[in-house]
Amino acid sequence: MTSAEGTAPDLTAEILRNALCVAAEEAGIVVVRSAYSAFIVEGADAAAAILDARGRLVAHSLSTALIQCASLRSALPFLLDAHPAETMEPGDVFVLNDVYQGGIHANDLLVFKPVFVDGMPAYFTGTLIHVADLSGISAGGMASDATDVFLEGLQLPPVRIATADGLVDDLVRVLAANSRTPERLVGDLRALVAGANVAARRLAEIIETYTPAGLARGVADYLAHTERRMRDGLAGIPAGTRRASYTLDDGHTVRVAVTSDGSGGLTVDFDGTDEQVPLPVNSGFSQTIGGVLYAVRCFVDPALPMNEGCFTPVDIRLPRGTLVHCTRPFPGGGRFGTVAAAEEAVLSAIAPDGAAASGILQAFSISGVRTPWLHMAFDLGGTGARPDGDGVDATGALFGGGRNIVPQVEPVEARLPVRIEEVSLIPDSGGRGRHRGGLGTRTVLRVLEDARVDTRGDRLRRPPPGASGGSPGRPGSYRRERVDGRVEPLDAKATRQPLAAGEALIVETSGGGGHGPPGHRDPEALTRDRADGRTT
Amino acid sequence: MSVTLATDVGGTFTDVVLTGPDGRVVVAKTLTTPDDPTEGLLRGVRRALADGGVPAGEVTRFVHATTLATNVILERTGVPVAFVTTEGFRSMLALGRQARVEEDRYDRFFVQPEPPVPLTHTFAVPERIDATGAVLTPLDEKAAESVAERIAGLGVSAVAICLLHSYVNPAHERRLAEIVAARLPDGTPVVASCDVWPELGEYERATTTLMSAYVGPVMAAYLRRLEERLRGVGVVAPVRVMESAGGVLPAALAADRAVYTIESGPAAGVVAAARLGSRRGLADLVCFDMGGTTAKAGLVRGGRPGITHEFQVGGKGSHGGRRPGTGVPIKVPAIDLAEVGSGGGSIAWADAGTLRVGPRSAGADPGPACYGRGGTLPTVTDADLVLGYLAPDGFGAFHLDASLARSAIEEHVARPLGVDVIGAAAAIHDIAGAQMGAAVHVVTVRRGIDPRGFTLVALGGAAPTHVARLAERFGIGRVLVPPHAGVGSAAGLLHADLAIERARTFLAPVSRLTSCSASRDALGELADLLDELERAARADLSAGGEAVTVRSVGIRFVGQAHAFTVELPAGPVTPETVQRAAEEFYKRYHESYGIDLRDPVELTTARVRVTLPGDDPPSPRVTPVPSPAASRRIWLSGEWLDVPVRARTSHVPGETFEGPCVVTEPQSSLLVPSGWRGTVDDEGAILLEARS
Fold first, then answer.
1. B686 within domain boundaries
2. Which of A25, A160, A355, B383 could hold A386 in an S-S bridge, CB 3.0 to 4.6 Å?
3. Same domain, B419 and B447
4. In B329-420, which residue ranges form alpha helices assigned H by DSSP?
5. Three state DSSP letters for A440-485
6. What's the CA gap between B288 and B279, in Å, rounded?
7. Of A4, A389, A423, the CB nearest to B355
8. Is residue B634 part of a domain?
9. Touching check for A30 and chain B: CB below 8 Å?
10. Which pLDDT value is given to residue B320?
């Protein structure tokens, strides 16, 4: 059902925009299909984007999370500083992972390939995944006791990983020598390069079809159009400054002041946020930017495309040396708790009467003691209830992802010496309220060989608070079940804890906070929750 | 000699096409009878047999396309289902894998979708099989009995079962199915995942099984009734049903594996378009199929229809509702299509000063106002009639009444909007065109594909009236209107292959199959599995020696997730044939990803496709039937024009003609606007080309 204006006014422009997105999409598919990283293979997605030589984000694949976009976008200027455009040759491909130069942490490799117009790089294709292993104190890069960045893994400033002649073998050898799973690492690297190559090839075809000037004009129009719509949306936020904060499990606090000019411009200032800490709790600046953009985008048309036009109207100020912008050598790998805190703070600064807080993703990795196998996964918490409805079960929405990143049981068991005995919603885990918080989940994973486990959770000691009189969600946990059935708690940020053959890791995620007084809940909703087993 | 009856039941019309022993094609179009679709179908069958002078007993093939499965799922009219899985995983369907993608991820008001089966109807039993098929915990038969008891108490009409790793060892599923079935009323379907889609990945296997259980009983009852009624008129040929990927299934199997028929009708159209294109050297096509209720667009590139394995029921978003990660996945292969709820029967209405068309359809009953069957609401067909695009004497048995059309438009659109009837009719036609455009848009522009190099193929009763204007909308310069375009999907079924695919997960390193030592067991296992699948597939089709078998394996690098399907040569499975398949995999991997890698590979799936090829004789050369010159006033580009009107059958092969004109045939009316030149080929197909 549409009205008469259903046709595109400018078909060519629209085909062009979609062709750019499809090019990124194809790159993402190539990376996922050719990667070895357990993370990717078992269901997570690859990020892929197209940027221009000014570092502006042009398009990205559907499965690219905003924090990944933000990383690619933040890193490109550093790449261009280290390797000025005029020094780049056709066929060059670059890699980096430096958290202080737009990266995320050691295991997230960013790969860029320039696309040339008239002999100069005019665009870049970028791909990013969490690779199998790249050194560091724990396999898989999740050491929660890494007191500096060097313990998180091998550091890569922007360097050339391939030329027209193929991979730079010397560097590949160094990388392989620094991985517990060298074949997989090299496989992942090849996948990233292949993805960037495919997108670059498509982009070259697009340039051929539309001419360089035509593409430049199309991109400029696209970004300007998006920016206009973004500003239109943000103009709905009343002028003035509003402050909010969110405190992590360990007591560190993220503070934000959001100032709206009332006409589409927004300043998001984290002045007053606690200092960075010598543990992987901090966030690299690119990750906080991604989190802020995520929160801000929740207040504009959700269907807006994600490109530079979304970034331009938002002035993000991140004091250096704080939790939200760590500096060398403070580690950045454990960022999600901090990024989620920043998101939550921005959300409640903009909409003080909005949703209750959500359970967030809880990561864990299990690695073999005798053989180098690795299982990495996320489980997701319930989202906070809203003024108008219940929270969503186990989608940990703050990162913009969903349960598709949670692997299915059968492929994991077919590949690794583990047995998954339970994946279930936890009854009564959603915070009570007029609207109930979303439920958390319980996963029971038994190892069949001796292993070690790393965990990384937050909002476990301080569960997601309720709003407007709602109760907090039930806190999640990590626990170990001994062979004799004894269950003992593991730390929320446990590192290399032994898990002997026959023992199990139990991961429970936090439920979302409730909204409104529990006594005001609709009796029908109470009955339905009981019938469904969401409450007992 | 073979006599084939091909039938397509749509939302408004039921099309029947018969090819007799002489290759002559007879067409009958009747109104669909929604309460009992077999009623309208039988009417069409009787008429086609009578018109063709063929005794019912001589029909050798009966091929059927139906949108029943799709409608049941979209309208949620399937039967109540209970779901049983392994203990510990009762939340499987509720948790799902619903990704929050695109706009959903930024939506503060995102509402959690209801699980496809309510939690109150979801059960778990203690049992466990591991990834190698070994039993870790035997099926707890007592617990199974008690679950069966509770299911019996719910009064469900079907049960879906998906236990972990049943693709490698189905024993527990089969036994559990027996126990559950024993407690339920006779004939209640209990569908085990190992029988529907025995492949690794419990969530997709579960949802695919579930949808089969949900639709199956409705489909079975319908096909049973259809067979009975056909017997009643003397048609004894077995009923075959078009499946979503373009093959054809026997009726019994279509009921058991109902999810395989989800895109039955539309798939027939795309397959027909691909075949029609290839006969004319056209490999890149947009198939545009517009009937009474909906319009679909499908893409054919390089002569092959696009196939998707990511059909999402209730999915949403920019890929025509098939966006991965939304809705409930069905993992069976289906022809890739976009569909909009806009057809000839779509109702036009004034909504607070704006004109809207659809999504409500007048369907077959009461139908558009101009049918004179009691419909008073104006439809797209009414607008087309008022504008002169359709002949007032109608088509086939349907007389169209222009005055009824005019007054319906006057009352419900023109007067509320304060415009004249012609202006209103033209706007309705344009809006319908824009909606058709949306379907074409999804399969082309949205995917970054420029449609301008493609040929638009018109199928379905309403398509010829709208196709040229649709082409103009996209700058498409070539339009193919095949003979019998008005019943295009059914005509496509005439030559469809009878085909079925059976597959099962088979995980084994290639090195184990190719090394000279210890390879015998694994090789034997693979050979046995392929034989078993082939036997099953041949039994499915009741196929004898004439069937063609293609065996293939999924191969991937050890440690990766995505496999390529590689064909095995005919003959015994040997270390050499497996090695050759691996070499082919390396080659294709290199071609696809630009990575030249020789790492260890493993087999993932054994797959067998058995095909009974359909016949595809050249249609007899058309013999023109002279008809007197006629003309009609039509509304084109804001003015009334007198344009020539000719019967399609009057055109001589090779003849060309210029727009504006109208070409009529019994089931449709082709509008050729100014700027288009038509050419008629030997088989009577019309190729329109834009004069630029």
1. no
2. A355
3. no
4. 380-386, 402-409, 415-417
5. CEEEEEEECCCEEEEEECCCCCCCCCCECCCCCCCCCEEEEECCCC
6. 18
7. A4
8. no
9. yes
10. 39
Q: Tens digit of pLDDT for each residue in B650-687?
A: 988 999 999 999 999 888 899 999 999 999 998 889 99
What is the C-alpha separation between A167 and B283, in angstroms, rounded? 38
B675 and B659 in contact (C-beta within 8 Å)? yes
B24 and B62 together in one domain: yes
Structural domains in chain B (count): 5
Best of B129, B593, B605 to mutate (most A CBs within 10 Å, chain A): B593
The token duo for A107 is: 């295991």
Distance (Å) of CA B339 to CA A131, B265, B294, B321? 39, 12, 7, 9
**What pLDDT, in 10s, does the model give residues B215-242?**
888 899 999 999 999 999 999 998 989 8
Same domain, B376 and B446: no
Share of chain A residues as helix, strand and coil, in percent rounded to the nearest 5? 35, 25, 45
Cβ of A18 within 8 Å of Cβ of B130? The answer is no
Contact criterion met (CB below 8 Å) for B244 and B250: no
Fill in the DSSP letter of residue A325: B
- Does B356 share its domain with B428? yes
Both B382 and B253 in a single domain? Answer: no
Closest by Cα among A455, A464, A442 to A380: A442
Q: Using one digit for the tens of pLDDT, what is the confidence trace for B273-290?
A: 998 898 899 999 999 998
Q: Which residues of A touch B323 (CB under 8 A)?
A: 62
B560: domain range? 500-612
**Contact predicate A438/A395, CB 8 Å:** yes
* Sole residue written with tokens 């059309």: B405
Q: Is residue B148 part of a domain?
A: yes
Closest by Cα among B452, B389, B444 to B692: B452
Regarding whether B457 and B427 lie in a shared domain, the answer is no
Q: Which two tokens stand for residue A102?
A: 């737009």
Q: Which residue has the tokens 């408004």?
A: B12
CA–CA separation, B32 and B292 (whole Å): 10
Task: Count how many residues are written for chain B.
Answer: 692
User: What is the 3 state secondary structure string of B245-299?
Assistant: CCCEEEHHHHHHCHHHHCCHHHHHHHHHHHHHHHCCCCCCEEEEEECCCCEEEEE
Q: What is the rounded CA–CA span in Å between residue B39 and residue B44? A: 9
Answer yes or no: are the C-beta atoms of B564 and B556 closer than 8 Å. Answer: yes
**Cβ of residue A22 closer than 8 Å to a chain B Cβ:** yes
CA distance B597 to chain A (A): 9
Higher-confidence residue of B499 and A486: namely: A486
Task: Verify that B53 and B100 share a domain, yes or no.
Answer: no
Last residue of a domain, one of B214, B245, B276: B214
Distance CA A330, CA A150 (A): 9
Query: CA-CA distance, A124 to A331, in Å (whole number)?
Result: 28
Q: Are B445 and A183 in contact (CB < 8 Å)? A: no
Contact predicate B151/B116, CB 8 Å: no
- Is B89's CB within 8 Å of A423's CB? yes
**Three-state SS for A534?**
coil
Average pLDDT, chain B: 87
Are B402 and B287 members of one domain?
Answer: no
Domain ranges of chain A: 11-210, 235-352, 355-536
Task: Say which of B105, B434, B447 has its CB closest to residue A397.
Answer: B105
Q: Please indicate, yes or no, if residue B412 is contained in any of the structural domains.
A: yes
B243-267 in b/e form (b: 16+ CB < 10 A) is bbbbbbbbbbbbbbbbbbbbbbbbb
Structure-token match 């499946």, residue found = B243
The residue in chain A having the minimum alpha-carbon distance to the alpha carbon of residue B428 is: A4
Of B136, B165, B447, the CB nearest to A18: B447
Q: Is A397's CB within 8 Å of B88's CB? A: no
